[in-house]
Specification:
By secondary structure, the protein is of the alpha/beta class. It has five helices and five strands, in the order αβββαβααβα. Strand 2 and strand 3 form a beta hairpin.
């Protein structure tokens, strides 16, 4: 026995409930954001149509970031961009290592580019870094 109802076009007799659109695109889909605590700072992995890494922590923090990516099922080669919020060592310290491990470009504001070019404590950043 078929239940009386309306199909997608509103015709009676299909047995299907009418399709309603009550959500807008922003409600239906939000990117996944994975926080990676790095002591005094936090990196964020944003997974949407691509993978964005925001903040790289101190030198050596790349291992913690890569472990979080592995846990989330993200391969290093899936990272499209590494975004450095500013040129302090506790936020850009692993940028060079992560750039090499992911092959993703590094973006930093032009005001911090010179600091990254100079490096700190013997760590230098590559001239190919975006904005650097």
């Amino acid at each position: 026995m078929k239940a009386a109802g309306r199909d997608r076009n509103g015709s009676a007799g299909s047995g299907r409930a009418p399709v309603t659109k009550t959500e807008n695109a922003a409600v239906r889909y939000l990117p996944a954001v994975i926080s990676v605590p790095l002591g005094p700072t936090t990196a964020f992995i944003v997974r949407d149509q691509c993978v964005l890494l925001v903040d790289t922590g101190n030198p050596g923090d790349e291992t913690v970031i890569l472990a979080a990516m592995r846990k989330a099922g993200i391969r290093p080669d899936e990272v499209s961009l590494i975004l450095v919020p500013h040129g302090h060592p506790d936020h850009c310290g692993s940028a060079d290592a992560l750039r090499e491990l992911t092959a993703a470009p590094v973006a930093v504001h032009e005001a911090d580019a010179a600091l990254m070019r100079l490096g700190f404590d013997g760590l230098r950043f590559p001239p190919g870094s975006s904005g650097a």
